[in-house]
Amino acid sequence: MSSTLAVDLMGGDHGPKVTLPACVQFLQEHPEGRVILVGQPEVVSPLLESHRLKDHPRVEFVPASEVVTSDDPVEIALRRKRDSSMRRAIELVRDGRAQACVSAGNTGALMALARYLLKTLLDIERPAIATYLPNQKGKGTLMLDLGANVDCEPLHLLQFAVMGTAYAATAGQAQPTVGLLNIGEEVIKGNDTIKRAAELLREADALGRLRFHGNVEGDDIFKGTTDIVVCDGFVGNVALKTSEGLAQMLSGMIREEFTRTPLSKLMALVALPVLKRFRRRVDHRRYNGAALLGLRGLVVKSHGSADAFGFEQALLRAHEAVQGDVVRHTERILEAMHESSPQGTESAPAS
Amino acid sequence: MSSTLAVDLMGGDHGPKVTLPACVQFLQEHPEGRVILVGQPEVVSPLLESHRLKDHPRVEFVPASEVVTSDDPVEIALRRKRDSSMRRAIELVRDGRAQACVSAGNTGALMALARYLLKTLLDIERPAIATYLPNQKGKGTLMLDLGANVDCEPLHLLQFAVMGTAYAATAGQAQPTVGLLNIGEEVIKGNDTIKRAAELLREADALGRLRFHGNVEGDDIFKGTTDIVVCDGFVGNVALKTSEGLAQMLSGMIREEFTRTPLSKLMALVALPVLKRFRRRVDHRRYNGAALLGLRGLVVKSHGSADAFGFEQALLRAHEAVQGDVVRHTERILEAMHESSPQGTESAPAS
């Protein structure tokens, strides 16, 4: 199945210098992939020439005169910069010209624009941000929400589980298990939101909508106890950032120890092949690409500082999700839930 | 300054087999330290003999007939097992016979008993659990709460900052900086609780009660951006467990890579001194010992699975905090805050 990705060339710390080479690589490796490149003509045109994309049969160019910067408030992106590359790229998805949009721009603006232009799916109150984290089993744990929703109701957590289930299926996990992030059994056992969310998840499991494993704790994310871990956006964002910080500290310390003395440098040289293989296994760039889920169209957010390899991974995520028809798949589960529940899932109290 | 620690010998996965040797080591290294050992006589007596602690001038033994197990619900620990080693050890602090209690037992039971027997300090509504995590600066970041309080009001977060400030001072950080854990600026900027907590912290800073740095994110914990990181117990527990899980996964992967082939095993042998030094730097046992803060007496909780080296670190934490007079120091800040605020800090809405 072919896919057409709308790519916001201007987003991220590096803009077209990174996003364009990533597209070239993607097109080479995926003959079924097409891209619509969106950006400022004066910046992008010379690069299109030099990368020989001008007359590429699977490349289209759509001009946009403005760029949403990383400090632009949501309001600017929504109301002022109406011809931004980010907005134009999402509009291509809305208009059915592309099946997914990929951007390395400002997360808040991207989420707001995506929500405004694409709208949410049936009964979905809040879209969520989902990403894969590496785990001991080598498959990756899908975690959501990572920061779109600070305070969540039980229904939202259930909906995240549904979105995650549909998304994970596009990455080859046909019947993924869902874990609800909670805290240690030793201490107070979670709060009311978590308890009620667990009930909703058990019901959905009994109806065959998803596979609920039960509560999990922070360490289960990296153990890979479940394929999906669901939590509110505050907790998810803290867990993600904490992990990034720890990984950085540890790799810094390994580097320090191996460069401390001439002898340890020699040891590093000897151990280099092993260290390299280790680094490749935990390379965070391989996990780049967070999906904005729950919308009537797919948007994938790349890390702002991603390099071409990292941005290409985000393109791949989008490509895979399009091939797995993630939006339609999510819709199907939501429709089934809506019908099986007497009042539909929208009956829950608004937050 | 001398210290007397009441030690619950029976707590944890290993009981006296681990806790007793740790006490022996502690006594040897700290001639100013005294311990009151609490445990079941039939189990402990032979070990006291074999470790030559029977007539040790700085050792006292207090019998207790019961043990709080790791699965005992809080109610059992509070109402049924009235002669447990955990309870007796805390009572020694309450009665002024010891200045701190150290236990590797069930966290929920320990917190409930400590709260019930010792009571909270002036204006403190919720005690908190605090521990040090390693950071890039090599000093350690004090983080609290780690799971005692699932839902926190802004006032609680302020109080955690006060408790943390007093506790960190006992570890040699005279004027520690406080960071309030929040999520990325890109996304929605925190919730109302965090915003109001930040206001309270700014006020306390202006009055010279503590040093408020501002908001921090998950990665700042390991960067060591601030000496103290304050958050609610749900978030803190998830961040802690997530870090533990990631550290385990990474060390497992390093081990795997270095034992994959005979050649990589040889490389590991060459690199061993460096790998050992690295492991020592990140050895989680060195950070064992979480303090229960906000009470009219100090209680230190050791990890249940700690070995003798780990348990000794928990004893050291308690010893240091006693020498720094942490309870009195916390009280002084609270009294100053109580007086400077027209209604005292207890004026905030109850949760």
UniProtKB/TrEMBL annotation, chains A, B:
Family membership noted in the UniProt record:
Belongs to the PlsX family.
Q: Gene3D superfamilies, alphabetically?
A: Isopropylmalate Dehydrogenase (3.40.718.10)
Top-rank taxon of the source lineage equals Bacteria
- What InterPro entries does the record tag this protein with? FA_synthesis, Phospholipid_synth_PlsX-like
Q: Which Pfam families does the record associate with it?
A: FA_synthesis
Protein's pathway: Lipid metabolism; phospholipid metabolism
* Enzyme class (EC, first level): transferase
- Does the record's keyword annotation contain Nucleotide-binding? no
Q: Under which name does UniProt file this protein?
A: Phosphate acyltransferase
The protein's gene is named plsX
Keyword Lipid biosynthesis recorded:
yes
Q: Which GO terms describe its molecular function?
A: phosphate:acyl-[acyl carrier protein] acyltransferase activity
The entry's keywords: Acyltransferase, Cytoplasm, Lipid biosynthesis, Lipid metabolism, Phospholipid biosynthesis, Phospholipid metabolism, Transferase
Broad class of the protein's primary localization: cytoplasm
- Any single GO BP term: phospholipid biosynthetic process
Reaction catalysed by this enzyme: a fatty acyl-[ACP] + phosphate = an acyl phosphate + holo-[ACP]
Q: Which HAMAP family match?
A: PlsX
Mind naming one GO cellular-component term on file for this protein? cytoplasm
